[in-house]
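TL;DR need structure tokens for one chain.
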Amino acid sequence: MELNIQVNRTCLYILLFFFAGLMIIYLGGSFSEKCAIQDTDMAYSESPLHIDVNGNKVAYYDYLPTSYSLSVLLLHGMRFSKENWKTLGTLDTLLESGYRAIAVDLPGYGDSEQSPDLSNEEFLRQFMTKLDLESTVIVSPSMSGGFAIPVVFSGRPVLSGWVPISPVSISSHKLEEYQSLQLPVLAVYGENDNQFRSQVEKYLGSIPGVKMKMIEGGSHPCYLDSPDVWHQSLLHFLSGH
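>> reply
TL;DR here they are.
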């Protein structure tokens, strides 16, 4: 009888140690997962941020890795906003590749207020100054070319590169000015963008050392037609910096 009791106690202790071990493993794993999530959350915020530019509210995303060597500022076209870069996966793609990625709502678009007292050029310059965006690559599709092109040619602030995507206002500068531009450029355009393709090829194609990327079957917002091709082309260009 006494032997049976000792055996039962031994079995009970073994079971208790077994279940205790399982709990430690489970809680340890949960804690590690939780820490990993917290570390990721520290790198960036998925919620829009806001900043004051000349007395007006400007909304933007800032996907900020713990360390980085290059920032990418994403502008947008007339029918779009900062949200397109989030849903398309461009913000995540850049963050995962070690780049700081900022997507802004231009004045009067998305969640940003109008900036009636600032020119497009001055708005972009003040926004970049507020976020300390020296040595940045600007991505400027369509309408946002009206913001980026004046900054590109002014040289203020100093940029590390420019990625125009069938931008408007291309002809606002002479061909000779493009031929004299000293800046790494990736010019992206759609094969079926009949309105802007010829201008892109003529003006942007004349920039010394320019990388030209025509997206096959692409329309005017060609990056939306082939996101994988767009991301691969962008990362390849950025890796050269």
